[in-house]
Design goal:
Layout lengths: L2 E6 L4 H11 L7 E7 L4 E7 L2 H10 L6 E7 L14 E2 L5 E9 L2 H10 L11 H10 L4 H11 L2 E9 L6 E6 L4 E4 L4 E4 L11 E4 L5 E5 L2 E5 L5 E2 L4 E2 L15 H7 L1 H9 L3 E2 L4 E2 L8 H5 L3 E6 L1 H18 L3 E5 H4 L10 E7 L5 H12 L3 E6 L5 H5 L2 E4 L12 H20 L4 H22 L2 H11 L4 E6 L3 H16 L2 E6 L16 E6 L5 H13 L3 E6 L12 E4 L8 H19 L18
Parallel strand pairs: 18-19, 18-20, 20-21, 21-22, 23-24, 23-25, 25-26, 26-27
Antiparallel strand pairs: 1-4, 1-10, 2-3, 2-4, 5-6, 6-7, 7-8, 8-12, 9-10, 9-11, 11-15, 12-13, 13-14, 16-17
The structure holds fructose -6-phosphate.
Fructose -6-phosphate binds next to helix 9 and helix 16.
């Protein structure tokens, strides 16, 4: 999604802004720009396409100055051209604005401002803000921004600079994240901590409704009535290494290989082997509250929705509590049955996904207790939920989610275990599951050790046009996730199905050119899936089978086999997802796709 960076301090702003933008590249964008105050006026440079184009524009026509704002844009209103790239200037060039989010009444404002004599130079909704600020300026930039925001409807994270009040950056947020980086005699603004981590670990997260003023001497935070607000300075706990490729060809590959560690980190200090349960300090729920849950609703989008499906089965299996999974985008506009005895779990890597956030707010409004299973510390969902579990998977830079998925399943397993042990799950069964969880990091490593063999399989299928992914029980969501990984990074059409559903339609697609990935570990439904593999083979489909032991029943049915270790049924999707991620990755690389920044995708989807 769009990215914002700002700098004010004693150094040249442009190189710091460009460095920050590069750190945000992973989020997805299609144009970029900077505005810097050069001592007399605001200078902007913008370019369609990648940041390297913007660097070219800056090399041809440099800008110097110690106050500036910058942006990477992911087009919503108007195509990704230079004229639509941010920052946007006011008619008299005195105000520059960068903006994440959507101004819903932009058309009305545009008409009003045009009638007042303002000339618009882009198709964007954002440009209305710069004209409004110019119109309302009366000696104080923050007052003009406050006045402008009173007229604006929609969501925003904005940064504003003005040549009429040049020693300031004014920022504000409503529905789009922003933080202040507190350096040594210098201040940064960013939509994501990665942008500024090279310069400071001290950050102030802004809340919705906050407005901040940064000057070379400090910063202040206030509300829309200009009343001061205290916001604490927090420390970012991860290192720069976490957001660098560290010798891997792509972030995605690095993140796939990190999973023995990240899965371990999700469990660290939480798993109690002896009692077959878990300790989850952050959920903020008493024993009584946990015992009084009538039903659970889990809501999420994309990959996180797939982990939710696994969580649903685990909670029902371990704790016998009726559980439903809902796409957040659907939940927010339905009239769901939610009561004060409903527990609503929201799952989100970024903690910023607009639909998921809105679904959580809706569940809260209806009285549910909300838990956020979130990776990004300090993100909006993590700040607004009633409690939660941080995944501790570290920053996920690759657009395709990998390590966050496995950590989400682990967090759900830990929670289901705790809930189960309070209710119906025996200590013996609890211990068995806890031990299986504990064994996962080594088991994942043993699958990663087969990466070269999986890369070879990818060679055979890089030119395929379609793929089917089939699994049953706990591995049906793994099939959905495998298909999503492949389609989003390789652009091969892929579908995931419960294996037995194949004969109700998709079987018509099977011929010698259709690869079918079966997730068939030796679990409770293994015998059932063997017949589905036979059905594919009988129609000359190509079979790639992920299984866990030598099985005479599979003889003659497998074109390519990938072995995963054995574990309890509910954890098989964690192990199965590793070869699925590797297969998708290698196929995409062999097709020449940009795996870390797939076309049309953004890392966190902060618009509806
Ligand atoms: C797929 C992927 C997306 C996200 C989805 C939700 O690889 O990354 O499907 O899972 O956009 O994002 P979060 O988890 O940040 O809410």
């Amino acid at each position: 999604m769009c990215g914002i960076v700002g700098y004010i301090g004693p150094k040249q702003a442009t190189p710091l802004l460009i460095e920050g933008l590069k750190r945000l590249e992973y989020r997805g964008y299609d144009s970029a720009g900077v505005a810097v105050y050069d001592g007399e006026s605001l200078e902007t440079r913008r370019a369609a396409g990648k940041i390297v184009k913007l660097e070219g524009a800056l090399a041809a026509d440099p800008v110097t100055g110690k106050v500036g704002i910058a942006h990477t844009r992911w087009a919503t209103h108007g195509p990704p051209t230079e004229r639509n790239a941010h920052p946007h200037l006011s008619s008299d060039d005195s105000v520059a604005v960068v903006h994440n989010g959507i101004i819903e009444n932009a058309d009305v404002l545009r008409k009003q401002l045009t009638a007042l004599g303002h000339t618009f130079r882009s198709d964007t909704d954002t440009e209305t803000i710069s004209h409004l600020v110019q119109e309302l300026y009366d000696g104080s930039l923050e007052e003009a921004v406050i006045g402008a925001l009173r007229k604006v409807e929609g969501t925003f994270g904005i940064a504003v600079v003005s040549s009429r009040d040049p020693q300031k950056i004014v920022a504000a947020r409503k529905g789009s994240p922003l933080l202040i980086g507190v350096g040594d005699g210098e201040y940064f603004l960013a939509s994501d901590a990665s942008a500024i981590l090279a310069h400071t670990r001290q950050v102030v997260y802004l809340d919705d409704g906050d407005l901040a003023v940064l000057t070379p001497d400090g910063y202040k935070v206030m509300d829309i009535n200009a009343s001061p607000i205290r916001r604490s300075v927090e420390r970012i706990e991860w290192d720069l290494e976490a957001i660098e490729r560290g010798g891997f060809d792509h972030f995605m590959l690095k993140e796939i290989f990190e999973q023995p560690t990240t899965v371990g980190n999700t469990m660290r200090g939480r798993l109690i082997l002896e009692d077959g349960t878990s300790k989850l300090g952050g959920i903020n729920m008493s024993h009584e509250q946990l015992m009084n849950i009538d039903n659970v609703v889990i809501t999420a989008c994309g990959t996180s929705w797939h982990s939710a499906l696994i969580g649903e089965m685990m909670i029902e299996d371990f704790a016998r509590i009726p559980t439903e999974v809902e796409y957040a985008s659907e939940f927010r506009y339905r009239n769901p049955i939610v009561t004060p005895r409903t527990l609503c779990i929201v799952i989100s890597q970024s903690g910023e996904t607009a639909d998921t956030l809105a679904a959580m707010r809706e569940a809260k409004r209806r009285g549910a207790h909300t838990l956020g299973f979130v990776n990004v510390v300090g993100s909006t969902i993590a700040r607004e939920d009633d409690g939660g579990i941080y995944l501790h998977a570290g920053p996920e830079i690759g657009v395709a989610s990998t390590k966050a998925f496995t950590s989400q399943v682990i967090a759900l397993a830990l929670f289901a275990l705790k809930l189960g042990r309070k209710r119906t799950l025996s200590v013996m069964r609890g211990r068995e599951i806890a031990q299986a969880l504990d064994a996962l990091p080594k088991q994942i490593q043993s699958i990663l050790d087969q990466a070269a063999a999986i890369e070879k399989i990818a060679d055979s299928y890089k030119d395929a046009h379609n793929f089917l992914y089939l699994g049953r029980g706990y591995n049906f969501p793994a099939a959905l996730e495998g298909a999503l990984k492949l389609k989003e990074i390789s652009y091969i059409h892929a579908e995931g199905y419960p294996a037995a559903e194949m004969k109700h339609g998709p079987i018509a697609l099977i011929d010698e050119s259709m690869p079918v990935v079966f997730i068939a570990p030796h679990d409770a439904v293994f015998d059932k899936i063997v017949s589905n593999i036979q059905e594919v083979k009988a129609r000359h489909g190509k079979t790639i089978v992920i299984t866990s032991r030598d099985e005479p029943a599979l003889e003659g049915l497998i074109d390519h086999e990938i072995r995963i270790p054995e574990t309890v049924d509910m954890l098989t999707p964690v192990l199965a997802s590793i070869p699925l991620q590797l297969l998708a990755y290698y196929i995409a690389v062999k097709r020449g796709a940009n795996v870390d920044q797939p076309r049309n995708l953004a890392k966190s989807v902060t618009v509806e």
